[in-house]
Design goal:
About 40% of the residues lie in helices and about 15% in strands. It is built from six helices and four strands. The chain is an alpha+beta fold. Strands 1-2-4-3 form a four-stranded antiparallel beta sheet, with helices on both faces. The chain has one domain: NADH Oxidase.
Length: about 190
C-alpha cells in the first residue's frame, strides 16, 4: 500500500514531454484505469477521444477556430500565423486524450455527480501515467467549454469536455510541491 500513497504524493503535472511514440498498450492501460473510477448509480458517464499523429489536428483546428472567432481585422497573413500558433498547442505531446462527461438521462442521477465521476477517472489516468513512467498534464480552460470544441468532438445534449490529458515521456524534472497539512483543512465532528 505504501506504493499507492507514494504515487499519490509524488505524481506531478508534467507539461513538457518528448515526442517519442507511446505504445498503444500503455494508453489502453490509462483508459482501463480511468473506467474504474467510482460513479454513483454505475452510470459510467465518461467518453475518451485518443488523438495521436495527424489525429491531433482535430484539437488544433478547434483551438485555432476558437481563438480566431474572438478577434477581427486580421490580415490574411496575421490570421495564418495565429492559426498556426494555436494549432501547435495540440502537438505539445505525442498523445492527447480528450475526456468528456456524458451525463445519464436518468432523472434520479444528479449531474454534478456525473462530473465528479469523470474527474475521478481523470485522476486515475494521471496516477496510472505516473506509475507507467509517463508524463501527463490535465489541461482545461475556456476553450474546453466553447461550442466549437464541443462540435469538434461531436458532443451533443448535456455532454461536455472536462479537459485534455497530454501524455508522453517526461522531458523535465517533476516540479517540487507541498500542501497545507490535511489537519489544517479538516474539522472532526465527534
Amino acid at each position: 500500500m505504501t506504493d499507492l500513497f507514494a504515487a499519490i504524493q509524488h505524481r506531478r503535472s508534467i507539461g513538457k514531454v518528448k515526442q517519442d511514440a507511446v505504445p498503444q498498450e500503455q494508453i489502453e492501460r490509462l483508459l482501463e484505469a480511468a473506467i474504474w473510477a467510482p460513479n454513483h448509480r454505475r452510470t459510467e458517464p465518461w467518453k475518451f477521444f485518443v488523438m495521436e499523429g495527424e489525429g491531433r489536428r482535430v484539437l488544433g483546428r478547434a483551438y485555432a477556430d476558437i481563438a480566431l472567432s474572438q478577434v477581427s481585422g486580421l490580415s490574411a497573413e496575421e490570421e495564418a500565423e495565429q492559426r498556426s500558433n494555436h494549432e501547435k498547442k495540440a502537438f505539445r505531446s505525442p498523445i492527447v486524450i480528450a475526456v468528456a462527461v456524458s451525463p445519464a438521462e436518468d432523472a434520479n442521477v444528479t449531474e454534478i455527480e456525473e462530473y465528479a465521476a469523470v474527474h475521478a477517472a481523470v485522476q486515475n489516468m494521471l496516477l496510472a501515467a505516473h506509475a507507467l513512467g509517463l508524463g501527463a498534464v490535465w489541461r482545461t480552460g475556456d476553450p474546453m467549454y466553447h461550442p466549437i470544441m464541443r462540435e469538434a468532438f461531436g458532443l451533443s445534449g448535456r455532454e461536455q469536455l472536462v479537459g485534455m490529458i497530454y501524455v508522453g515521456y517526461p522531458d523535465m524534472e517533476a516540479p517540487q510541491s507541498k500542501r497545507i497539512p490535511a489537519a489544517e483543512k479538516t474539522v472532526w465532528l465527534r
